[in-house]
Amino acid sequence: MGTLRQGHNAWRIEKAGRASILIDAGAYFSAVRAALQQAQRNVFIVGWDLDSRTQLVGGDGAAYDGWPVNLRDFLTRLVRERPHLTVHLLAWDFAVLYALEREPFPALKLGWNTPSRVRFRLDNVLPVGASHHQKIVVIDDAVALSGGLDLTIRRWDTTRHRIDDPRRRDPAGKPYAPFHDVQMVVDGDAASAKSLSNRGASPVVRPASVTWPICPP
C-alpha cells in the first residue's frame, strides 16, 4: 500500500502527463510568464502574498518578449488581448504584523487598477492565528504550478545564490538576502484536479463570500 491514500491523507490522486521541478524563483517566474501567455479562458492565482510590482523575469533578470515586466501590467495586457480570458487572484488578508513587508492596499493595486476581468479578493475567512498559505497557479485547467513560492517581491533569485547579486533588489532599490525555494509544474489530470474551477468552490481555498466559476470542459 502506498503512502498516499485518497480520502485519507490526500484529497485526490491523479496522474500528470508531464511534471518538473522548478528550482528558485528565476526559473519559476520564467515558467509562469510563458504559461500565462498561452492562457485563453481562465487563470487562478492563489498566494500567501501577491504583489503587483513583482518582476516576472527569468534567471538572467530580464524578459525578451516585449511584454510588461511587472505582474499588474502583465496581467492587464493579457486580458486586454484575450477577450474570453478571466484572471482570478486570491491572497491572504494578512495580519498587521506583516503590514510593513507587504504592498499597501493590494486590492487597489491588483483589483481597482486593473481591468474588470482581473478579479482580486483577500481571504479573511480563517481561524484566529491562522493564515492562508497556498501558492498555486492554474491555467485553463491544463497546467498547474504549486510549491513554496509566491508571486511577490524579494523572492527572485537563481540557483547560484550569489551574496552580492545586484539584480536581487526590492522595488525601493534595497538589496535582499539570497532566497531559495522550489515549485512544481504539472499538466494533464493532475493540473485539472488542482484547478479551483473543478473543486466546487471549496471553502478551503477561497473566502466564503466568493463563488468561483465552473469552467466548461
Structural account:
The protein is an alpha/beta fold and 217 residues long. Helix content is 17%, strand content 18%. It has 4 helices and 7 strands, in the order E-H-E-H-E-H-E-E-E-E-H. It has a 7-stranded mixed beta sheet. Strand 2, helix 2 and strand 3 form a beta-alpha-beta unit. The chain is globular, with a radius of gyration of 17 Å. The protein starts with 18 loop residues before the first strand and ends in a 23-residue tail after the last helix.
Distance between the termini: 33 Å
**Gyration radius over CA:** 17 Å
Category by helix and strand content: alpha/beta
Would you tell me the overall average pLDDT? 86
**Globular, elongated, flat, extended or rod-shaped: what is the shape?**
globular
The H-and-E topology, N to C, reads as EHEHEHEEEEH
Q: What proportion of the residues form beta strands (DSSP E)?
A: 15-25%
Q: How many β-strand runs?
A: 7
Q: In percent, how helical is the residue content? A: 10-25%
Low-pLDDT windows of residues:
199-217
Biggest sheet, open or closed, and with what strands and sense? 7 strands, mixed
Number of helices: 4
| Widest β-sheet, arrangement of strands | 1-7-6-5-2-3-4
Question: What is shown here, in short?
Answer:
This protein has helices at residues 24-36, 71-81, 106-112, 189-194; strands spanning 19-23, 42-47, 86-92, 118-123, 136-139, 143-147, 182-187.
